[in-house]
Amino acid sequence: MKIAFIGGGNMASALIAGLAGKLTAGADIHVVDPNADALERLRTQYGVTTATAADADAAVAAADVIVLAVKPQSMRDVAAQLRPLIDTARQPLVVSIAAGIRSADLARWLGYGAIVRCMPNTPALIGMGITGMTATAGVSAQQKQAADDILRAVGPTVWLDDEAQIDAVTAISGSGPAYVFYFIEAMQQAAKELGLSDEQGTQLALATFAGAAQLATQSSEPVSLLRERVTSKGGTTYAALTSMEQSGVKAAIVKGAKAAAARGKALGDELGAAG
Ligand SMILES: NC(=O)C1=CN([C@@H]2O[C@H](COP(=O)(O)OP(=O)(O)OC[C@H]3O[C@@H](n4cnc5c(N)ncnc54)[C@H](O)[C@@H]3O)[C@@H](O)[C@H]2O)C=CC1
Ligand SMILES: O=C(O)[C@@H]1CCC=N1
């Protein structure tokens, strides 16, 4: 299977890192990006072949799967560049990871409709991503399987019945790693203000996150029960959670995630309306 990545930035690198070494014999990854430094890094680290955007024609024409990993704002121009290069007789699969961009708009820009739209996340870099996926009616069962194989190389996949749900996936798992890093940063700051060293605070915060996440994953009990077990009445955790509730922390997180979903939809509306 020949996979051409259009865009070799953060998210493409995370996917390529997870994929490299997992591909079967004969499979290969080709990356197209105007940034020569990014291409050099990907060649050195993962042994992929590369081309600058001006030089992409052969790689795109030969690809079985074309992964579009450019910014949503660049997608329309990139699709226009790709349009004459896609060999429709060969029926390649197009996989888009862009937030917001709807399959119908992308199909119109490409003049081609076999599209899987998905939303991965950056823990893919260490094979611990998770991806929400949808396919248009033009995607064959075999192509769906190929897309699933590619994304499952970096973590589990969740197929959605309705493409509109992908904005919710974006809000939870696509953007979610940033919320987790934000919470860890807050724990690091608290540790410092409470007199621990940076190193101690980081070690304690990271191990607590990893341990709690694993405990929740491995437990058959609801997360709320695990929380209650830490929270002795009148104890320290109770003091912390009461203060956080009073500050509206949970409500603020829910509101923030909804803002991400709304931004995904708005990006689709704004960029999709552009012809
Ligand atoms: N970063 C994240 O956590 C996630 C990002 N995404 C989506 O992935 C896409 C890429 O995001 P990032 O990797 O974070 O951005 P990025 O800015 O790191 O990567 C975009 C890459 O596209 C390249 N590029 C620009 N024009 C190009 C062209 N004409 N042809 C080929 N390459 C071109 C840029 O040089 C850059 O390397 C976005 O659409 C984003 O919504 C999806 C899930 C998670
Ligand atoms: O922030 C963004 O727009 C992208 C999509 C999900 C994660 N990063």
General description of the model:
The chain has helices spanning about 10-20, 35-45, 55-60, 75-80, 105-110, 140-150, 165-175, 175-195, 200-220, 225-230, 235-245, 250-270, and strands at about 1-5, 30, 50, 65-70, 95, 115-120, 130-135, 155-160. The chain has about 280 residues and is an alpha/beta fold. The chain has two domains: about 1-170, NAD(P)-binding Rossmann-like Domain (Rossmann fold, 3-Layer(aba) Sandwich); about 175-265, ProC C-terminal domain-like fold, CATH 1.10.3730. An eight-stranded mixed beta sheet has the order 3-2-1-4-5-6-7-8, with helices on both faces. Strand 2 (about 30), helix 2 and strand 3 form a beta-alpha-beta unit. The longest helix is centred in the C-terminal third of the chain and has 24 residues, at about 250-270. The chain is elongated and about 70 Å long. The model has no long low-confidence stretch (mean pLDDT about 95). The structure holds 1,4-dihydronicotinamide adenine dinucleotide and (2S)-3,4-dihydro-2H-pyrrole-2-carboxylic acid. 1,4-dihydronicotinamide adenine dinucleotide (NAI) binds near residues 10, 38, 121 and 174.
> Percent helix among the residues?
40-55%
| SSE ordering | EHEHEHEHEHEEHEHHHHHH
How widely separated are the two ends? Answer: 33 Å
* Arrangement of strands in the largest sheet: 3-2-1-4-5-6-7-8
- What number is the mean pLDDT? 94
Major sheet summary line: 8 strands, mixed
Q: Structural class given helices, strands, pairing?
A: alpha/beta
In total, the number of domains comes to 2
> Low-confidence stretches at least 5 residues in length (pLDDT < 50)?
none
Bound molecules: 1,4-dihydronicotinamide adenine dinucleotide, (2S)-3,4-dihydro-2H-pyrrole-2-carboxylic acid
What's the CATH architecture of the largest domain?
3-Layer(aba) Sandwich
CATH top level of the largest domain is Alpha Beta
Characterize the overall form: elongated
For the secondary structure, the number of strands is: 8
Under CATH, the homologous superfamily of the largest domain reads NAD(P)-binding Rossmann-like Domain
Radius of gyration: 21 Å
Family: Belongs to the pyrroline-5-carboxylate reductase family.
Subcellular location: Cytoplasm
GO molecular function, one term: pyrroline-5-carboxylate reductase activity
EC number: 1.5.1.2
